[in-house]
């Protein structure tokens, strides 16, 4: 063990602190990147922290493993798929520990199961139900830097290895931070923080210095890919501040913390935190549903039974002459096939006319706690979209969000128009995308 350097400068922290850091796939894409991340981890250790790292698989290797699985079987068994996918993080964790040891510091890597990440038994989208960090705590106490394989755990009931769903390493990091009572969870990624819109669409997007848990939850749920939704839910529940920042620069990123309920409403506070978009949904319309009590319930019970999460739902007023109504809803495109099959099998029982499927849609959402106290936000949003020639297909709202479904090829112009209308455009372009294939 190398003894810690004297602590100095703005990066210094209290000597007792535990810092949890997460590095995403693009931050550990190759050997050089792994060595760079190792140096960064060692800096945090030298500053006097106990450091626990959750790491993703290298680059696009999870996608490559999935492609490989699909080449040997069109429908790989879920248990085996989790076995396969968790191997990606085992590679990066071991290489990272080696690179750290090469810098003269001792590191120990652990699989999710070894680290005490206990989940339910749902392969491919397991939920963390407990973290028992005994082995990690002992490794910290012995002075080691701890590296944990992201996005995986072990089922409490079946004892099988599980994965938390794509992007789940963020959640691993926050769960570890909560279990270890860490001071902060730093999420290192390939962008400088959370932006007011996707900089790939709006080059004038600005980095947010801070954002509340609720706004971040809405941003993540509405397609902002910078943080995994479940990680934000977890951080909110345990009140763990998340610092989202780039592993490619030393810039301060975005701190996600605090609740909208405890915000002091000030004049300067931005009304809108950002504009998010999502191209991963499809829309299904059930045409000609008899307008009788219980018909909608039957449709939605069947979809729930098939484990499909719906997003927006709209029921049209029934035509007086026919007493038939149309019900439309959006859902993840990846569930489109299952939903259509499930509904088709209900057709004679419910007696609707037909089913329509449309996956050429996108969702654009305006998010901000300030809209609770500022009238006219909806009017301004819709007139900006109208000005850009965008037609609205569906609308839904929450306390701090307005979402619209538009045609897929109008998503970019809708996002840009809303961003400009709410004065979110920066005067100078500051967004940098450092790496990643966006895959
Ligand atoms: N490697 C997994 C994925 O690509 C988990 C993660 O990166 O968080 O989804
Ligand atoms: Mg990845």
Automatic annotation (TrEMBL):
<dbReference type="InterPro" id="IPR036393">
    <property type="entry name" value="AceGlu_kinase-like_sf"/>
</dbReference>
<protein>
    <recommendedName>
        <fullName>Aspartokinase</fullName>
        <ecNumber>2.7.2.4</ecNumber>
    </recommendedName>
</protein>
<comment type="function">
    <text>Catalyzes the phosphorylation of the beta-carboxyl group of aspartic acid with ATP to yield 4-phospho-L-aspartate, which is involved in the branched biosynthetic pathway leading to the biosynthesis of amino acids lysine, threonine, isoleucine and methionine.</text>
</comment>
<feature type="domain" description="ACT">
    <location>
        <begin position="284"/>
        <end position="369"/>
    </location>
</feature>
<comment type="pathway">
    <text>Amino-acid biosynthesis; L-lysine biosynthesis via DAP pathway; (S)-tetrahydrodipicolinate from L-aspartate: step 1/4.</text>
</comment>
<dbReference type="GO" id="GO:0016301">
    <property type="term" value="F:kinase activity"/>
</dbReference>
<dbReference type="InterPro" id="IPR054352">
    <property type="entry name" value="ACT_Aspartokinase"/>
</dbReference>
<dbReference type="InterPro" id="IPR018042">
    <property type="entry name" value="Aspartate_kinase_CS"/>
</dbReference>
<dbReference type="InterPro" id="IPR041740">
    <property type="entry name" value="AKii-LysC-BS"/>
</dbReference>
<dbReference type="InterPro" id="IPR002912">
    <property type="entry name" value="ACT_dom"/>
</dbReference>
<keyword id="KW-0067">ATP-binding</keyword>
<keyword id="KW-0028">Amino-acid biosynthesis</keyword>
<keyword id="KW-0457">Lysine biosynthesis</keyword>
<dbReference type="Pfam" id="PF22468">
    <property type="entry name" value="ACT_9"/>
</dbReference>
<dbReference type="Pfam" id="PF00696">
    <property type="entry name" value="AA_kinase"/>
</dbReference>
<dbReference type="InterPro" id="IPR005260">
    <property type="entry name" value="Asp_kin_monofn"/>
</dbReference>
<comment type="similarity">
    <text>Belongs to the aspartokinase family.</text>
</comment>
<keyword id="KW-0220">Diaminopimelate biosynthesis</keyword>
<keyword id="KW-0808">Transferase</keyword>
<dbReference type="InterPro" id="IPR001341">
    <property type="entry name" value="Asp_kinase"/>
</dbReference>
<comment type="pathway">
    <text>Amino-acid biosynthesis; L-methionine biosynthesis via de novo pathway; L-homoserine from L-aspartate: step 1/3.</text>
</comment>
<dbReference type="InterPro" id="IPR045865">
    <property type="entry name" value="ACT-like_dom_sf"/>
</dbReference>
<keyword id="KW-0418">Kinase</keyword>
<keyword id="KW-0547">Nucleotide-binding</keyword>
<dbReference type="InterPro" id="IPR001048">
    <property type="entry name" value="Asp/Glu/Uridylate_kinase"/>
</dbReference>
């Amino acid at each position: 063990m190398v003894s810690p350097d004297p602590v100095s400068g703005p990066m210094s922290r209290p000597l007792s602190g535990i810092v949890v850091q997460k590095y995403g796939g693009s931050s550990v894409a190759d050997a050089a990147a792994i060595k760079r991340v190792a140096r960064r981890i060692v800096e945090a250790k030298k500053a006097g922290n106990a450091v626990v790292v959750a790491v993703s698989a290298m680059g696009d290797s999870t996608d490559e493993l999935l492609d490989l699985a699909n080449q040997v079987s069109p429908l790989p068994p879920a248990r085996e798929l989790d076995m396969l996918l968790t191997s990606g993080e085992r590679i990066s964790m071991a290489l990272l520990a080696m690179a750290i040891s090469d810098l003269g510091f001792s590191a120990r890597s652990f699989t999710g199961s070894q680290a005490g990440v206990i989940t339910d038994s749902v392969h491919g989208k397991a939920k963390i139900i407990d973290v028992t960090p005994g082995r990690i705590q002992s490794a910290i106490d012995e002075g080691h830097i701890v590296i944990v394989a992201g996005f995986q755990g072990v089922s409490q009931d079946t004892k099988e290895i599980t994965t938390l769903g794509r992007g789940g390493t963020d959640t691993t990091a926050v769960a570890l931070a909560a279990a270890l009572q860490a001071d902060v969870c730093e999420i290192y990624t390939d962008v400088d923080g959370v932006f007011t819109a996707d900089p790939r669409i709006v080059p004038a997007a600005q980095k947010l210095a801070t954002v509340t848990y609720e706004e971040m939850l809405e941003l993540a749920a509405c397609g902002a890919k910078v943080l995994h939704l479940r990680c934000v839910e977890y951080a909110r529940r345990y009140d763990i501040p998340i610092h989202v920042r780039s592993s490619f620069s030393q810039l301060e990123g975005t701190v996600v913390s605090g609740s909208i309920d405890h915000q002091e409403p000030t004049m300067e506070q931005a009304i809108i935190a950002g504009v998010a978009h999502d191209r991963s949904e499809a829309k299904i319309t059930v045409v000609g549903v008899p307008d009788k009590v219980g018909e909608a319930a039957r449709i939605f019970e069947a979809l729930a039974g098939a484990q499909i999460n719906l997003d927006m739902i709209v029921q049209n007023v029934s035509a007086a002459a026919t007493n038939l109504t149309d019900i439309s809803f959006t859902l993840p495109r990846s569930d489109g096939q299952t939903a259509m099959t499930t509904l088709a099998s209900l057709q004679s029982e419910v007696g609707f006319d037909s089913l329509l499927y449309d996956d050429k849609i996108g969702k654009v959402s305006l998010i901000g706690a300030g809209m609770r106290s500022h009238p006219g936000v909806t009017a301004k949003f819709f007139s900006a979209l109208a000005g850009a020639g965008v037609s609205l297909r569906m609308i839904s709202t929450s306390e701090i969000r307005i979402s619209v479904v538009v045609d897929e090829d109008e998503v970019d112009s809708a996002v840009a128009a809303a961003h400009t209308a709410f004065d979110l455009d920066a005067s100078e372009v500051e967004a940098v995308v450092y790496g990643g294939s966006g895959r």
